[in-house]
Amino acid sequence: MMMGRKYCSGYNIREEDLKEHYLSAYNEAATFEPHDVQDLGASIRDLLSQERELIALRAKKYLNKEAYEEQHEELLKQLKEYEAEYAMESRRLGDGKTHKAAYCYSERLVRSLEVAEIDGYTITFKFKNGAVINRIFNNQTNRKETWARKAGGM
């Protein structure tokens, strides 16, 4: 295994910069919902809308009791199947908890990360919920101010 600058084409990134980019990516990933889950959610909303329409038709006496009960039972069966699939997919993607926005970096936030990859000046954060977030870092920052603060004990 070869190691060192000679074999590594990656750029250095300061820990504080990395934490800042991670926090930003984490907050974006917290609102991420994969297409499969979005589609299931849309299907559930559609079935609930159909159920409301069915109830309205029965209330206006456009459907007899038997037709209403038959169609309503079928709707409820589909709804339960979609809800079960939605719950299973949500559990598969993570710990089942919705991540809340974070205002400062902490080690516990890293539990939601699958992997982070650095390629050139791009960091790709891949989260357990399926979100893939890219961040660009700039290593051209003038470090004189940072060095002066460290030297001065600030």
Output the keywords.
154 residues, mainly alpha, three-stranded antiparallel β-sheet, 4 helices
Task: Write up what this structure looks like.
The chain is mostly helical. The protein has one domain. The chain has 4 helices and 3 strands; from the N terminus they run αααβββα. A 3-stranded antiparallel sheet has the order 1-2-3, with helices on one face. α2 (35-59) packs antiparallel against α3. The longest helix has 29 residues, at 65-93. The protein is rod-shaped, with a radius of gyration of 25 Å.
Termini separation comes to: 40 Å
Q: What is the number of helices?
A: 4
Structural class: mainly alpha
Secondary structure: helix percent: 40-55%
Strand order of the largest sheet: 1-2-3
- From the structure provided, what is the oligomeric state, counting identical versus distinct chains? single chain
* C-alpha Rg (nearest Å): 25 Å
Shape type: rod-shaped
Largest beta-sheet details: 3 strands, antiparallel
Overall tally of structural domains: 1
Poorly predicted runs: none
Strand content range: 5-15%
